[in-house]
Amino acid sequence: MDSGGRHLPARAQPALRLSAPSFELLAGSAWLALAAAAWLIGRGWLSLSTLESLPLCAFRFWTGWRCPGCGMAHALLYAFQGSWSQSIAHHALGLPVLAVWTGWMLWRAGLRLSR
């Protein structure tokens, strides 16, 4: 609706967007979930085969084909455990993604602390 109480056409309505704090919360939560899963796998309390049974990739679930991001979760889990070669074997961009993701989170945390 506009200020006059009239309904706007669908094309004139703003797109749904995540605000910066919502995106930061989502990114931080995902990072912590991956770190926790890697820790559980390292302790032997969780196995990768258990995680593989979960349909994480909608594209692969619907088509059966691997998408360009397939293997990224495994690569990140191996990177969190320090298994660099296995991380690279699952997805070549796993280590750079983790480095940028971690650096971005530390930078954002530093900005928040400096306020």
Question: Would you give an account of this structure?
Answer:
The protein has 115 residues and is mainly alpha-helical. The protein has one domain (23-113). Helix content is 62%, strand content 0%. Helix 1 (20-43) packs across helix 6 (94-113), helix 4 (72-80) runs antiparallel to helix 5 and helix 4 packs across helix 6 (94-113). It is globular, with a radius of gyration of 19 Å.
How many domains? The number is: 1
Distance between the termini: 36 Å
Number of helices: 6
* SSE pattern, N- to C-terminal: HHHHHH
Structural class of the helix and strand makeup? Answer: mainly alpha
Can you summarize this structure?
The chain has 115 residues and is mainly alpha-helical.
Index terms:
115 residues, 6 helices, mainly alpha, single chain
Element layout with pairings:
Blueprint: H1 20-43, H2 48-52, H3 58-63, H4 72-80, H5 84-90, H6 94-113
